TrEMBL record:
PROSITE patterns (alphabetical): DNAJ_1, DNAJ_2, ZF_CR
Cofactor(s) needed: Zn(2+)
UniProt organism field: Commensalibacter melissae
Pfam families attached to this UniProt entry: DnaJ, DnaJ_C, DnaJ_CXXCXGXG
GO cellular component, one term: cytoplasm
Key words, A-Z: Chaperone, Cytoplasm, DNA replication, Metal-binding, Repeat, Stress response, Zinc, Zinc-finger
Listed GO biological process terms: DNA replication; protein refolding; response to heat
Cofactor binding comment, as recorded: Binds 2 Zn(2+) ions per monomer.
Protein name (Swiss-Prot/TrEMBL): Chaperone protein DnaJ
NCBIfam families xref list: DnaJ_bact, PRK10767.1
Residue span, CR-type domain: 133-212
Similarity field: Belongs to the DnaJ family.
Amino acid sequence: MSKRDYYEILEISRTSSSEEIKKAYRKKAMQYHPDRNPGDQEAEAKFKEINEAYDVLKDEQKKAAYDRFGHDAFQNGGAGNGFGGGFGAGGFSDIFDMFGDMMGMNRGGNSRKRSGADIQIQTEIQLTEAFTGIKKKVKYKTKKPCQSCDGSGSTDKTNGNKTCPTCHGSGKIRAQQGFFLVERPCNTCHGTGQVISNPCKKCHGTGLENQDKELEIDIPAGIEDGTRIRISGEGEAGSNGNPPGDLYVYVSVLPHDLFHREGANIFCRIPIRITQAALGTELEVPIIDGGRSKVKIPAGTQTGKQFRLRGKGFSVLRSSSRGDMYIEVKVEIPQHLTKRQKELLEEFEAEAQNKENEGNPETTSFFKKVKDFFEGKS
């Protein structure tokens, strides 16, 4: 008995969207669910049929295979090897063509050129170096063409290769995964289709040898912590004359003792004495470019107050502009007071408690609210 068309089962068209397929399935599944039809074998059979149809049509790859080959796409019989039975001369390789060169192989059996491996390293720079930009030397381990065999991989430096016995020169092998036949580069010859008959003893036939390399790279001004810089062609050499890979340098910007960066802005927290905050003062503060700037601190300045210095911040990547700098004041409470300092502060405190003194408006306001709370006024 031939199977019913999956689209017919769900009563949808072949152009239905994934949302329409899901909606149709839910409607049908609810109608024929065994809990709603206890003991009804026909409903149970339809419920299984509905689930089978939905399992295929909800998956884009399965749906594509079904649209092209129908139920044969999921049959492992037919020609006896799992790839015949209704597929025509191309067999299951036709399905492979639907998804292109997924594994970097073409139908002719030739592998694409395999570039050398990419290399990833990390380098650290100071915050001031990130501000100005810097030329930085980096050292890393890579691979270069073997000098003993001139990169050929063969002891006699010739084309002493033979056809790979695993893939028979195609450079690829096929393996069935579900209803797909997947092609991948041959593990024996790494997709070249050939193996070296007399491998070089130094590089063991790879054509490559280890190398310690030093390279000077340009790190631009304004670079962010964690930025990746790509240097084309400075990765590992490719085997058999193929192009080299790339070098990726991850830049780590170290913390600074004075400055904290947030994007293009810089923050500097400066402690001042309680007398400076109360009476006011003028401070000379450092700038990231090595200069200095004067900041006037008005009398009565509180902890956390910020003062903005326009255009004194960090470099902006690929731009001549700069962000701003923010000076944040922290009022420091003195420790280890002398006897005279204690006497002066006690006099100051006595004066501060004078009802006519309005030098601490926030404190006065807070404790008034506390008093009102205990008296039931708030």
